[in-house]
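Problem 12. The chain below contains 295 residues. Write out its predicted structure in token notation.
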Amino acid sequence: MNESPEVATGTIYDIGYRGYDGPRLGRRGAIGAIVGAGLRAVFGLGRSARSKILPWGAVVLAVLPAGVAVAIRVLAGDIIELYNYENYLWEIGALLPIFVAAQAPELVVNDMRHRVLPLYFSRPISRYDYVVSKLTALTLALLALTLLPVILLFAGRVLGSEDALGALGDEIGALPGIIGSGVLHAVVLASIGLAICAVAGRRAYAAGAVLAVFLIGSVMSGTFEAQGGALEGFAPFVNPLAILDGARQWLFGGTVAGSPVSDAGIALPVYGLAVAVILAVSWLVLAIRYRSVTT
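Solution.
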């Protein structure tokens, strides 16, 4: 008698999606997560060592002159002063566009290329929340270049003095200008960088466009300044860094020898108005760009 054929048996597993019943952080948690992820992306945290070279190298190069200046002040006293609170950001100005050009595309270009923006905007954040989160992340990252070195310079002057308490009393008046100037530079540069990157389709195009704005502006500013006459008055307004220096002088005082602001003869409040225009245009570009994204 033939044996009956084996009957295939198996088990059915329920591998369907399960609902999330844990804590929900809501809009504030989502914004904080985007800011945190943005900072990690800018500084290459959790990525390869190669992605950390440029951002951390820029931070080291920005802080290094302050360390050298403090060391010289401790050894030689007030005989030699390489940098002061007013001219420091102008002297390291070349680093700032490089940092923005290299790291700003990390925040917005990939999201657009990989078409993940509808996922962001589905819930619970809005387009406004997304833009503010990205601006906040890049601004905080830029503070490592615009604020940290000058704070180090401030601390070195105080702690390197024989009378630290007396030195603190002498230097404390400069602290609002140090913080205000650092924040001003970081916010404006972050706004310019993200506005340019938001309309670029690829990271290389975005980085090149950011560098072009600052490089061409610097060259044109130097050319106008060399020509003299009426063109000299326009020299600072084609260079974003010169506009920022003029706004810094208006808000916090102090002049910079190498800046075209001193020779232009333009009233300092005009630079504050120019900064307001730059911010308004940058934020308008971001608003228009992300309004067109469908959810």
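Discussion. Residues 26-291 form one domain. Students who got a different answer should revisit the alignment rule from Section 12.3.
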